[in-house]
Design goal:
The protein is α+β, with helices and mostly antiparallel strands and 223 residues long. 42% of the residues lie in helices and 27% in strands. It is elongated and about 100 Å long.
Length: 223
């Protein structure tokens, strides 16, 4: 925590904006944490992780697999259309990165394979760390390229985080509008169907009354 400004100081405390900026950056980082997972993959098994990513978002991943004598594990990253964004046979340790062209569901799959005739083997431990958006951006390279000071780098990060949050809210608003339009359209169709059903029932009841009246008159049960 920064010390308070002395009261007699004529100029504002220079540490207060820095502290507020760092606090805001910390809160925004908590809103967009990096996704790191660790799991065990049995022999001759396949496991996939799926995640929805917005349009024009940088996605990076770092993976590390434990050794498995006599076996191999293949890694493949695909989108919902089946396009391969990254592929690695006999994966052990590495990184991948890609930028999304559209809002889509992306799938990261690990497949453990043993040689023919081998059906058992130890489980393989896989550690996967994925980042997207601002978390995936390397601000050290930005600082070197634009010759930014540490505070300017943090402010740039804060600006990018704020922009990402605004884009998320804009997308949520768009989805809310689409859902509202869908609900209104469904309600209107239900209303029209109900009116049509009522008209059919009234018409059927009227026809039945006239039919029964003619039937009873033909039988001379009524005049």
């Amino acid at each position: 925590m920064s010390p308070p400004c002395p009261s007699p100081s004529p100029s504002p405390c220079p540490l207060l904006p820095v502290a507020l900026a760092l606090a805001a950056i910390t809160l925004l980082r908590l809103a967009h944490p990096a996704a790191a997972v660790s799991f065990h993959l049995p022999a001759n098994a396949r496991k996939c992780l799926r995640e929805e990513i917005h349009k024009d978002v940088l996605v990076t991943g770092e993976y590390e697999l434990s050794e498995q004598p006599g076996g191999r594990t293949d890694l493949k990253v695909t989108d919902s259309s089946g396009h391969i964004l990254y592929s690695k046979e006999q994966a052990s340790k590495g990184k991948f990165a890609f930028t999304t062209d559209d809002y889509d569901m992306f799938e990261i799959c690990f497949e453990n394979r043993l040689p023919a005739g081998h059906f058992r083997g130890p489980d393989q431990q896989i550690v996967l760390n994925t980042k997207h958006g601002v978390e995936a951006k390397n601000y050290e390279d930005v600082a070197k390229a634009e010759k930014l000071k540490p505070l300017e780098v943090e402010l740039r990060r804060l600006e990018d985080l704020s922009e990402a949050i605004v884009n998320d809210f804009a997308y949520m608003k768009q989805r809310e509008e689409e859902m509202r339009d869908t609900n209104e359209s469904t309600s209107a169709r239900v209303l029209y169907f109900s009116i049509f059903s009522m008209c059919c029932l009234v018409g059927l009841a009227t026809w039945q009354v006239f039919y029964l009246r003619r039937f009873f008159k033909a039988k001379k049960l009524i005049e």
